[in-house]
Specification:
Layout (H helix, E strand, L loop, with lengths): L1 E7 L6 H8 L5 E6 L6 H8 L4 E4 L7 H12 L5 E4 L4 E5 L12 E4 L1 E5 L15 H4 L2 E4 L3 H6 L3 E4 L19 E8 L4 H9 L6 H5 L10 H14 L1 E2 L1 H9 L4
Parallel strand pairs: 1-2, 1-4, 2-3, 7-10
Antiparallel strand pairs: 4-9, 5-10, 6-9, 7-8, 8-11
Helix pairs in contact: 1-2
Length: 247
């Protein structure tokens, strides 16, 4: 069994691409709804009708409680599991997950996806994989990039997470996570980036947890421009990983 877990709040923009990609490779999905009031729930029911949708027991995105809830769910799962945000697309050789009996952790590094345009009319096609349409980004092979966006863990047994579920190392190049933090760079993506700060409790603010979420529209655009300078076309790298992908 291969299970993907994700928590979501008003993610109707990216969800169609995210769901249509991951449903090809995971037997099951568990989606934790953080009080969405857009079309997210309906999209999940339509695209992945057999996946579970769980209403969170948390009022807000409290960093500690988010991870505790995820771990409580993972304890009930057998087989492979990974927790991804809606901005994170896992590509690579899924055949590596077949017929492994030992406990295994894959610490998977990211590409930081950064659009090469900035336009409110920048609207990729939902009928094609996002990562075949938007291929510019910054690679984890630059240490500074990796320290900004660390790895995620794909494993076939339960273990606890550090706060935020990021890891400071990676041990595979057979998988990559494409983090669409700055792509497609349009008003819809900017809106989703700035909405989450209103769901973070005061206790996290005082503890400086999730500080990177406290940005306005102008700051997001400035961050995008600074990353755009570091980005390049990663299309050949992505295509190579896709070509070796099998189930």
């Amino acid at each position: 069994m291969k299970t993907v877990i994700s928590h979501f709040y008003n993610e109707e923009y990216l969800l169609p691409w995210w769901l249509n990609h991951h449903k090809k490779y995971f037997d099951h999905g568990i989606m934790i709804n953080y009080h969405s009031n857009d079309n997210s729930v309906n999209l999940i029911k339509e695209i992945c009708p057999t996946w579970e949708i769980i209403n969170t027991k948390n009022e807000n995105f409290d960093a500690i409680l988010v991870d505790e809830e995820i771990m409580s769910i993972e304890k009930l799962i057998s087989g492979w599991r990974i927790v991804l945000n809606t901005t994170e697309f896992l590509i690579g050789d899924y055949s590596l997950l077949n017929d492994i009996n030992d406990d295994v952790d894959y610490y998977i590094p990211p590409y930081i996806m950064v659009d090469n345009v900035n336009d409110e009319f920048n609207n990729p096609d939902y009928n094609e994989d996002l990562f075949l349409q938007r291929t510019h980004g910054a690679s984890y092979t630059d240490l500074n990039n990796f320290l900004f966006k660390k790895s995620r863990k794909l494993s076939n047994y339960f273990s606890s997470y550090p706060l935020g579920r990021h890891f400071g190392t990676y041990n595979t190049t057979e998988f990559v996570i494409l983090w669409y933090g700055f792509s497609p760079m349009n008003d819809k993506l900017i809106d989703r980036k700035i909405q989450i700060q209103h769901k973070i409790p005061e206790s996290d603010k005082l503890s400086k947890r999730g500080f990177h979420h406290f940005v306005n529209r102008e700051q997001v655009i400035e961050q995008f421009k600074s990353w755009q300078i570091k980005s390049e076309d990663l299309g050949d790298n992505i295509k190579q990983l896709i070509q070796q992908t099998s189930i």
